[in-house]
């Protein structure tokens, strides 16, 4: 992992940073003539999400962001089956387990697609290509399976969404305006 976090590797992501920053600057320039205010927080959020997604997976994956946001929405409530975990019929009645299984299958399909794209694509280095290369090198004591690669991808995706949530809560906490429904 120290190989992936080396100065040289981090600097290799500078073209992605520069492209995304140029996109934001272009958006600001095109919006400058309009009388509508610019939502700078949303632009920075988009910049971070797109950059991290491209650096981690090689391309921006908007469907992943929406699925993770949806999964957070599903998990933020209290489920009756959580109160009585040994009473198995509640798991079927609440429908939460079926919803989570369906979402897991959708996410797994997307992650498989990303892995296949990175296996066949000769583009620049990213987290997925690095993990696939380590998996193929077989120099590790414990081999890395493809499900380990996908689990690492899921952690990266979750970090991106948590960063978005953190920025939103930070904005709400520092905002002097009252929150209205």
TrEMBL record:
Family, as annotated: Belongs to the cytochrome P450 family.
Domain of life assignment: Eukaryota
Gene Ontology molecular function: any one: heme binding
Keywords of the record: Heme, Iron, Metal-binding, Monooxygenase, Oxidoreductase
Record's protein name: Uncharacterized protein
InterPro entries the record matches: CYP450_71D, Cyt_P450_sf
Key word Iron present: yes
Keyword Plastid attached: no
Gene source species: Crotalaria pallida (Smooth rattlebox)
